[in-house]
Amino acid sequence: MMDYHAHSPGACGGYLCAVRRDDWDRVAATQGMIPCFGVHPWYAEQEPVAQIAYDLDEYLSRYPQAQVGETGLDATPGHCGTYDAQELLLQVHLGAAFRHERLVHLHGAGAWSKLLELLQQRARNNTLPRILLHAWNGSHELARAFLSLGAVFSVGVRELTHSKAADRYARIPADKLFAESDDDPESFPRAVELLALLRGDIRAH
Ligand SMILES: [Zn+2]
Question: 40 CA distance to ligand 1 centroid (A)?
């Protein structure tokens, strides 16, 4: 199983997501991983949005195997102050992903409902790209709303060891929920194992 959301290359391969514009060339040059170009919502106010839009278009044209991310919204206490800038930058990423028919890796800490609203709006306008919600920790009810938009999810050890893990993840179809390492490449094998245990689809030997 490949890593569905990573910031460092790992032995299993997978999606390697940029965090800042400065990461893109390194991400593009990394062997054995699928490059993803984006700017994390934490840095939304520090990057020139128009330039990101032009550069994204150029990089996605140049790298046909590349996807989009990381992008999204963060409404947790330390980051909610830049919400307007985050939303603008997110729309630029969603537009690029739609135009180039790529998957977009979404961060939504504390902002899943807002994100859902915004994606539903794009779905109504027929401009919604394929979406992956990373570090998914919303309710099953919210998951169903995102599933109806065609979303897939990825989770890591942090999410899978939460007291609500079974409630959140056990009912999401296996082909819609994947393991991720995010910032901790060493954690990937454990995330794969925890996900399999939660689903009850592995035998002990
Ligand atoms: Zn990430």
Answer: 8
What is the 102 CA–ligand 1 centroid distance (Å)? Answer: 17
What CA–CA distance (Å, rounded) separates 129 from 132? 10
pLDDT digits (tens, 9 = 90+) for 116-171: 999 999 999 999 999 999 999 999 999 999 999 999 999 999 999 999 999 999 99
CA distance 147 to 136: 12
Cα(108) to ligand 1 centroid in Å equals 10
Q: Where are the domains of the chain?
A: 22-62+76-99, 131-151+173-199
pTM of the predicted protein model: 0.95
CA of 103 to the centre of ligand 1 (A): 15
> CB within 5 A of ion ligand 1: which residues?
70, 182
Can you read off the two tokens belonging to residue 4? 């569905």
The rounded distance, in Å, linking the Cα atoms of 81 and 60 is 30
